[in-house]
Amino acid sequence: ARTALERSQKLEAVGKLTGGVAHDFNNILHIISANVQLMMRNEESSRKRLLNIMDAVERGKKLTAQLLAFARRQPLHPSVVNPAQLIDRMDSLLHRAAGDAIEIRFELPATPWNTLVDPNQLENVLLNLVINARDAMNNQGHITIAIENVTIAPDSELGETGVKPNDYVKIAVTDTGSGMPPEVMERAFEPFFTTKPEGKGTGLGLSMAHGFVKQSGGHIRLASRPDEGTTVSIYLPRAQQETPDPLYIPTPH
Ligand code: ADP
């Protein structure tokens, strides 16, 4: 049974969450209404106003989609996924997200293990990690996406940091960006915690990644040094099945 403290902590979290969304959404609606009012006054500048409106609508859509994904946390549709295949399929999407100035390097084992996860969710998580990396990078440097087959033995060092002994597919996204000061690192997984300028960050990317990884039976770890960069590592349990399931039909991005 939940204790009173747990209940009140949960209520507090929900309150914070609702407040954050209401605030962001109010700003978006404000942009829309201000632009419509200006259009009604002055037809000349309609095109620019419409672009502002569309931009705000896109932000609103992104916010509600992330919120729904966060609130739902269910259902996942796991299948046996080969991570190298999935990343290969995301190639152009990832490059578009990173932008032309940032190089993406891939490090893959000869025979990566399979993992049992929801491929659409894994795709969302990886895209979010690459966007976070880009946002920390000021349009220079490189992002490395490394896949590794990892066995955590019961007496291994990683076991001590809370990664349960098991076979995992590890996917690590490393950037050469700004890194995180300790006080940001401590709060990075909190829903709606963001250091990004208003309208840019929702503060849901890492908390969603955390939720997805936990639900998939895995672990997520952050390593970061200010001015050097950040590595986000996710450990997904190895699937026993040798042949991956056919890849899903990609969602349009
Ligand atoms: P958002 O990206 O919308 O801010 P996230 O939950 O994905 O939300 O990230 C929360 C915060 O963690 C970011 O605002 C940023 O301060 C920090 N952060 C996340 N990824 C990185 C990274 N790769 N490098 C530096 N800081 C990061």
TrEMBL record:
Q: Specify first residue, last residue and whole-protein length for the fragment.
A: 509 to 761 of 761
Question: Has the keyword Signal been applied to this entry?
Answer: no
Which classification does the entry list for the species?
Bacteria, Pseudomonadati, Pseudomonadota, Betaproteobacteria, Burkholderiales
Keywords in alphabetical order: ATP-binding, Kinase, Membrane, Nucleotide-binding, Phosphoprotein, Transferase, Transmembrane, Transmembrane helix, Two-component regulatory system
Q: What is this protein called?
A: histidine kinase
Organism (species): Massilia norwichensis
Q: Where in the cell is it found?
A: Membrane
- The residue ranges of the Histidine kinase domain are 20-240
